[in-house]
Write a structure and sequence with these properties.
The complex is a heterodimer of chains A (370) and B (1056).
Chain A lengths: L5 H6 L4 E8 L2 E8 L6 H11 L7 E6 L5 E4 L2 H10 L3 E8 L12 H6 L1 H6 L1 H6 L16 E3 L9 E6 L9 E12 L2 E13 L4 H5 L7 E5 L2 E2 L5 H10 L3 E7 L10 H6 L2 H31 L6 H12 L3 H15 L12 H9 L9 H4 L4
Parallel strand pairs in A: 1-5
Antiparallel strand pairs in A: 1-2, 3-4, 3-5, 6-7, 7-12, 8-9, 9-10, 10-11, 10-12
Helix pairs in contact in A: 10-11
Chain B lengths: L1 H7 L4 H10 E10 L4 E7 L4 E6 L3 E5 L5 E5 L6 E7 L4 E6 L3 E10 L2 E11 L18 E6 L5 E6 L4 E5 L13 H5 L4 H4 L7 E6 L6 E6 L3 E6 L4 E7 L4 E6 L5 E6 L4 E5 L6 E2 L4 E3 L10 E9 L2 E9 L3 H4 L3 E7 L2 E7 L3 E7 L14 E6 L2 E6 L7 E2 L12 E7 L4 H14 L14 E2 L9 E6 L3 E6 L6 E7 L13 H5 L7 E3 L14 E7 L4 E6 L3 E8 L3 E3 L2 E6 L22 E3 L2 E11 L6 E5 L4 E5 L3 E6 L4 E7 L7 H4 L4 H23 L11 H13 L1 H6 L3 E4 L12 E9 L8 E8 L3 E8 L12 E9 L6 E7 L27 E6 L2 E6 L5 E6 H5 L3 E10 L7 E9 L3 E6 L5 E6 L6 H5 L2 E2 L4 E7 L2 E8 L8 E2 L39 H5 L35 E4 L4 H13 L11
Parallel strand pairs in B: 16-20, 25-35, 40-42
Antiparallel strand pairs in B: 1-62, 2-3, 3-4, 4-5, 6-7, 7-8, 8-9, 10-11, 11-12, 13-14, 14-15, 15-16, 17-18, 18-19, 19-21, 22-23, 23-24, 24-25, 26-27, 27-28, 28-29, 30-32, 31-63, 32-33, 33-34, 36-37, 37-38, 38-42, 39-41, 43-44, 44-45, 45-46, 48-49, 49-50, 50-51, 51-64, 52-53, 53-54, 54-55, 56-57, ...
The chains are: A alpha+beta (370), B mainly beta (1056).
């Protein structure tokens, strides 16, 4: 039995933090080391232990400083909860079977207090039912523009995520020639282009690709020097999670970043691309692969999971992973209706606009209508 | 990108050195018959023969194993080839009227063939070669004088030019123009007409200064070179085709375009001869075709041989390709199935004055084969050729290689083959120059080719020359429209001309359903399975006695109870009723017929378990040939797969196509109608420039409607998704990790793998108990690419041995202690899974990285060149781009890759077959296999020497020769690669070890350590769906718990 030390809880020492956990009508109080809270799994076990519910699947939530009830279901949001808890960490535990998912989200705690208002205006409340937010494990990736921060402005990296949709990818590619700016002047080089979009396909409905966009890379591999058939095979081989770097035919909708525009010329963007991007992309994708491997394993075996982690630590791309995390938490609380298949291109582009607040003036340009 | 990955994987110097010791690529030798031969030459002194082809290749053959190959830089037809007798020089004339001199030179103890100089005849003096008609100086005939210092070139314009040899310098003052000849021709013959092109130049057999020159119009002269005078005139009036001396120099014979030949006496007393001694049209009196070439050979035993080609009656036999051999009253009209290119006779080199030539053999090169006739044995039988085998006598449909064939089986096959062809001559091969320096092959390699006419041919592929051993026909057990009998031959006895069919080139198949699709042979039990186009699977046994027995027939319905399918393809072959007579050799015991009778796409045999598995586009079956009953049939068809049933002419496709076209038209009109206005954006200039460039590049291409490719993931109902691509038997762990047992694996075109656990009774109880098959696992590869191969690796990462290999002490027992793993190779990626739980261990996504697709794979044992007892098992893979990649197993690390076949050469890529020890074969033409080697140790290449006695010092001609194992390939498919691993010949002689299982311990990045295998960096989700039917309830429970714990996993795993 891990009874909390009264003294420690009362003193609110720097090292420990008081936890107040509620399951049903019961409360438990205990303390945690703030500096090393441990893993979520351990915390979960501890909660089951202190509430004496060892074989009950539960949902864990906490109230943050704004009074919102937020879930704890992984190491990251557990650590977030611990680090932001002030003065004590309030934990709410629900049985999974009768969990009320709608309880989570912004304003949840204040809303509860506002019972009177609801009573007074019951119709208002009924008209706007709670938006049901799925659990993070039910989220799925969607097609998007990625790596905006590391690519030259003239390029766009697009991820077409086929998983979970019945839509066809819905595009065709062809041979063609493009003009490049090289140190020797303009040069005509063979290239691969988007030739056609199938109406209603993933490419067309997301608006991420357009006819005559030049394909530069497929999942991190440059296509220059490869034949149309080779590129076709590469794309089909990657069709579950296709990441295409294109040079859009329509260059007017590009995001202009101040930091870049001053220094970069056409030459440097062309030449810098191969050297810098594959590295970044590989790393980025490695994280991706990790989650894949977890998916593939049918019987439990920790072995494959260890491999990518070792590789990852050796690389120094924390900034990127952080962005990833940030985005995922953001996405995590998007209303589920928006995560539906009818994700519009506009909303996606708006999303990355938020990372780039300097260019609000270019609003018309960020909505991609092709 | 490849480089980039290689670098990342570490630059372990130890591994690099090992790679260098293990792998080296070279194309070593071409087997078979040169494609489209165009010329022939023979050196009677060195007893070597040269064949030129339409693609500019020159191939020199001597004794078996003595081979040289050269390729002209120009891809032009080699119209003529001439040896300087005994000198090792070869002069070639190309289509573009250039002459090339080739030299066979000694280097490091071996002889090589190399082009040394070339020469183009200039236009006539005074004429600019540009406006002068090129045909004037077009070379029609070449004579190399026996003194080996001068070449005489007869031309279209009628002039004769002289070149020094081997310098190829024009001796301008010696040039003989027609004007000079015409002075001595009587006026009434001259008639103001030109003499026409030079048709023949022949040296006087006794007096080298005298030349016999024949002109197209019919005039033949004897020209004395020393005095520059016309010695003798033969005023022929019939258009001349060729000339030949009688050995003594007293008689000449001329052949003509009317199908006749004339014999002229050379009488030194008078200067002119008006009439020949004899003139005859052998196949007259009706109009005949020209006699293109004629030879006159004296013979001690009586009448001389007159050998000529053509001259057949135009109307009745104008389409026959014949060479006639006439000796006194004996005439044989050798009837070939393809055009006669050239022929020569082989006789003793030094014939004494007044002696006889006594030709030993007649060698005829026809377009599709080389036929040698023994002229010293009565009846003139053919001599079997030890090389230049016409592989394509019927089109090759599949090939199969077996290495390390046991001597016993080898001898039985040879004896079966010998009994097949009793009519062949026992005379030794007459073209036997040179010495084969290659060591005796230490292991016997057998190459089997399946053919369109239902035959399987067995070739000795142990050494440089590919020898035919045995031919197996499968047509005789079926009722075909055209019965095979030799009645035609017998009926023609009384016929005139006395045709005699020679050669074996017969491209016409009686019934396309007879075609062989797949072959499997067990070398220990001499059991063979041959499967064909009409779903027939024949189980055969080698028997040394002839027999007459009925073949038992079984049908296996692969559709099972699928409804709604109608087979619209061909019917199955009807087997003959009652007993059929079989010659010694492979005799069928059971015939299994698939229903529907689609072509068999995969077959495998396990002789220890008496099982044969076969698959078609509809499903697969398992048959117990001991009890002769089917064990299993499984349909693999997807319900929407209409193509598999209805054949490729489906209506759905054309509708799709027309829809697509009409949409394209609409779209096109829209695009052209709407011209965008250029917006003035305030962005930087560079961006604008880039944007403009991108836009400029766009529109013009739209109008061209270029080739488009649709990008869409494979769907389960893609056409022909049910095609069974591979079948595999293994003794491994399927049910649980404690008990191993017989299993069967099948992979399909849609990325499905089916695994069956087999209950095989012990040897003694075969007749009592039936084999049972229980479905164990079903794996669906998420990328749905066709499964090319499946293999199980033992605990040490080595492939499992073949049946009987362990029990006969020929291979190490597999490691049954460690956990087995399974290598599945799809067209897009390689993946190693653990067994019995199927979970992915390592993978390599070839297509995602390289954009190429897997065509052929094989597990190959590579022996190290430096250390005797080190060998590695690797995965060799041929891609659709014609590259060969080698990967370690089970780590799947890329080791090396080589360009091998042109990517346009689809039939070459499709025909490729790997051997177990790092060699391979692929077809470079319908009739030729290229042999290549991936191993540093196991190389089969021609190593031979030729003793030449040069009359002149030729050191001035020495060049810097490249030391490549082989000169560029004749068909131009050779892709040059850096000769980084040039092994010394001594290395390559060493034989590969037998199954080499031991890995040297220690290297940091050893192929066995899958732990450090770099995971793929391209992110897609390839989740395999594994249905486990066998898993014990406890295990299933654990799986379930895993599933609930690991919630991020998609619900793709179904556990039943």
């Amino acid at each position: 039995m891990n009874r909390p030390h009264r003294g420690a809880a009362g003193s609110r020492g720097l090292g420990t933090m008081e936890v107040k956990s509620k399951f049903g009508a019961e409360f438990r109080r205990f303390s945690l080391e703030r500096s090393k809270p441990g893993k979520f799994e351990e915390f979960y076990g501890l909660l089951q232990h202190v509430h004496k519910i060892p074989n009950v699947d539960v949902l864990v939530g906490y109230t943050d400083i704004h009074g919102d009830l937020l879930p704890i279901n992984n190491d990251d949001n557990y650590h977030k909860a611990v680090s932001t808890a002030n003065p004590l960490l309030r934990i709410f535990i629900q049985r999974k079977e009768d969990a009320d998912y709608s309880a989570f989200g912004t304003d949840t705690m204040t809303r509860k207090k506002n019972v009177l208002a609801n009573v007074l205006r019951p119709d208002n409340h009924k008209k706007k039912p709670h938006i049901v937010i799925s659990m993070p494990q039910d989220f799925r990736p969607v097609s998007s523009i990625i790596d905006v921060d590391i690519l030259p402005e003239t390029h766009r990296r697009v991820r077409l995520y086929k998983y979970g949709t019945d839509k066809p990818l819905g595009f065709y590619i062809r041979d063609g020639s493009s003009v490049r700016v090289t140190p020797h002047g303009l040069e005509k080089v063979p290239g691969i282009f988007i030739s056609r979009l199938v109406p209603g396909g993933l490419a067309q409905s997301t608006g991420l690709l357009a006819v005559n966009d030049e394909v530069l890379e497929v999942n991190g591999i440059e296509v220059s020097g490869k034949s149309l058939d080779q590129v076709t095979d590469m794309m089909i081989a990657n069709s579950r999670n296709l990441i295409i770097t294109v040079r859009p035919a329509n260059q007017r909708n590009n995001v202009v970043r101040n930091s870049r525009t001053s220094g970069s010329s056409g030459q440097s963007t062309e030449s810098s691309l191969p050297s810098s991007t594959p590295n970044i992309l590989t790393n980025f994708l490695q994280g991706e692969e990790e989650s894949d491997e977890e998916d593939i394993i049918i019987e439990d075996s920790g072995e494959p999971q260890q491999i990518p982690k070792a590789v990852r630590s050796s690389e120094s791309l924390e900034s990127l992973t952080q962005i990833e995390l940030h985005e995922s938490t953001q996405n995590g609380f998007l209303p589920s209706s928006e995560i539906n298949l009818n994700h519009s291109a506009g909303s996606i582009s708006m999303e990355y606009e938020e990372h780039d607040p300097d260019h609000k003036s270019l609003e018309d340009g960020t909505i991609i209508t092709l | 990108m490849m480089k980039f990955r290689f670098r990342r994987q570490g630059t372990d110097p130890h591994r690099d050195r090992l790679r260098h010791d293990l792998f080296a690529f070279s194309k070593t030798v071409e087997h078979g018959f040169p494609n489209q031969p165009s010329s022939l030459a023979f050196d009677p002194k060195l007893r070597i023969m040269a064949i030129g082809t339409k693609s500019g290749a020159v191939k020199v053959y001597g004794a078996p194993g003595v081979e040289f190959t050269g390729l002209h830089k120009e891809t032009a037809t080699v119209t003529q080839l001439h040896f300087l007798p005994g000198q090792g020089w070869l002069l070639s004339l190309l289509d573009d009227n250039t002459l090339h001199l080739w030299e066979i030179y000694q280097k490091e103890g071996c002889s090589h063939l190399e082009e040394t100089r070339s020469f183009g005849l200039p236009g006539r003096p005074g004429f600019d070669s540009a406006n002068c008609s090129p045909s004037i100086t077009r070379v029609t005939v070449i004579l190399l004088k026996s003194t080996c210092d001068v070449a005489c070139l007869g031309t279209e314009g009628g002039g004769v030019y002289f070149l020094t040899l081997p310098g190829l310098a024009l001796l301008e003052e010696k040039t003989l123009f027609q004007d000079e000849i015409l002075q001595s021709v009587p006026d009434d013959y001259r008639c103001g007409k030109a003499l026409g092109p030079v048709e023949s130049i022949q040296e006087h057999p006794r007096d080298p200064s005298k030349l016999l020159i024949g002109y197209s119009r019919g005039l033949v002269i004897i020209w004395d070179q020393t005095t520059r005078t016309v010695d003798h005139l033969f005023l022929g009036n019939q258009q001349l085709e060729s000339l030949a001396w009688e050995h003594s120099g007293k008689t000449i014979v001329s052949s003509h375009s009317d199908g006749g030949y004339m014999v002229w006496a050379v009488n030194s007393s008078c200067q002119k001869t008006q009439q020949p001694v004899m003139s005859t049209i052998p196949y007259g009196p009706f109009p005949c075709k020209a006699i293109n070439k004629i030879l006159w050979r004296t013979c001690e035993s009586g009448n001389p041989f007159i050998i000529f080609n053509g001259g057949m009656p135009r109307a009745s036999y104008g389409d026959r390709h014949c060479v006639s051999v006439l000796q006194g009253q004996t005439l044989a009209t050798l009837d070939f199935t393809s055009r006669v290119i050239d022929f020569f006779t082989v006789q003793g080199t030094e014939v004494a004055e007044g002696g006889f030539e006594n030709p030993r053999a007649l060698v005829v090169l026809v377009e599709e084969e080389l036929v040698v006739i023994d002229l010293q044995t009565p009846g003139w039988p053919t001599i079997p050729a030890p090389y230049l085998a016409p592989l394509h006598s019927s089109a090759i449909t599949c090939s199969y290689h077996i290495s390390n064939v046991p001597l016993k089986l080898w001898e039985r096959i040879i004896s079966a083959g010998e009994q097949q062809s009793p009519r062949l001559s026992s005379a030794s091969w007459p073209i036997n120059g040179g010495k084969n320096l290659a060591q005796e092959p230490t292991q016997r390699g057998l190459l089997l080719t399946g053919h369109e006419d239902g035959t399987v041919r067995f070739w000795d592929a142990s050494a440089v020359s590919l020898k035919p051993l045995y031919k197996l026909g499968t047509a005789n057990i079926f009722q075909t429209d055209c019965e095979h009998n030799d009645s035609l031959n017998q009926a023609s006895e009384e016929e005139w001309p006395p045709f005699r069919k020679v050669g074996c080139f017969d491209p016409y198949s009686d019934d396309p359903r007879l075609g062989i699709q797949k072959i499997a042979l067990c070398k220990y039990t001499a059991k063979m399975v041959v499967a064909g186009t009409a779903g027939q699977v024949l189980v055969m046994e080698l028997s040394d006695e002839k027999s007459e027995h009925a073949v038992s027939v079984a049908t296996v319905d692969l559709l099972q109870d699928r409804e709604g399918f109608t087979w619209k393809g061909h019917d199955r072959l009807a087997p003959k009723n009652g007993p059929v007579a079989f010659a010694p050799g492979f005799q069928p015991s059971v015939l299994v017929q698939c229903v529907p009778p689609a072509a068999v796409t995969a077959v495998t045999l396990h002789s220890e378990w008496n099982l044969v598995a076969f698959g078609t586009s509809h499903g697969f079956g398992l048959f117990d040939y001991y009890r002769r009953n089917p064990v299993l049939a499984r349909c693999t068809l997807h319900p929407n797969d209409s193509l598999a049933m209805e054949g490729p002419l489906s209506r759905v496709k054309s509708l799709k196509k027309s829809l697509r076209q009409s949409f394209r038209r609409i779209r096109k009109s829209r695009v052209s109608g709407k011209k965008r206005v250029n917006a003035n954006s305030p962005s930087s200039k560079v961006q604008e420039a880039n944007a403009q460039l991108a836009e400029q590049a766009g529109p013009p291409e739209v109008e061209m409607t270029p080739v488009q490719r649709r990008i869409e993931p494979r769907s389960p109902d893609d056409s022909l998704s049910g095609v069974v691509r591979c079948l595999y038997f293994a003794d491994t762990f399927l049910r649980d990790a404690a008990h191993h047992g017989p299993t069967m694996w099948a992979g399909t075109n849609s990325g499905s793998v089916f695994a069956y656990a087999l209950e095989v009774p012990s040897q003694e109880k075969f007749s009592e108990r039936a084999v049972e098959a229980v479905l164990g696992k079903e794996i669906q590869l998420m990328h749905r690419a066709p499964v090319v191969a499946i293999a199980v690796l033992d605990g040490r990462g080595n492939p499992l041995p073949e049946p009987y290999e362990v029990s006969r002490d020929l291979a190490k027992a597999p490691d049954m202690q460690g956990s087995h793993s399974m290598l599945i190779s799809s067209e897009e990626q390689f993946k190693v899974f653990t067994l019995p739980k199927v979970s992915a261990k390592t993978k390599f996504k070839l297509t995602a990285h390289e954009g190429c697709r897997v065509r052929k794979v094989a597990l190959v044992s590579f022996a190290s060149a430096t250390s005797e007892d080190y060998a590695e098992n690797c995965l060799a893979c041929l891609t659709n781009l014609g590259d060969i990649h080698i990967f370690t197993v089970p780590g799947l690390r890329p080791q090396v890759h080589y360009g091998c076949i042109r990517k346009e050469d689809i039939s070459g890529i499709a025909s490729c077959v790997f051997t177990k020890h790092g060699q391979g074969f692929y077809l470079i033409s319908p009739s030729e296999f290229e042999r290549f080697s991936l191993s540093t140790r196991n190389v089969t290449e021609p190593l031979c020497s030729l003793e030449v006695s040069r009359l002149q010092d030729t050191s001035c001609l020495s060049n810097n020769f490249m030391v490549t194992p082989k000169l560029p390939q004749a068909n131009g498919t050779h892709v040059p690669h850096s000769p980084e691993a040039n092994h010394s010949p001594a290395d390559s002689d060493r034989s590969p070890e037998e199954h080499q299982a031991a890995f040297s311990p220690g290297p940091v990045d050893s192929p066995n350590s899958s732990m450090e295998n770099p995971l793929d960096t391209t992110g897609d989700i390839t989740v395999e769906e594994v249905k486990d039917f066998l898993a014990s309830s406890e295990e299933a429970e654990r799986n379930l718990r895993n599933a609930s714990e690991d919630e991020a996993r998609p619900a793709g795993i179904l556990i039943k």
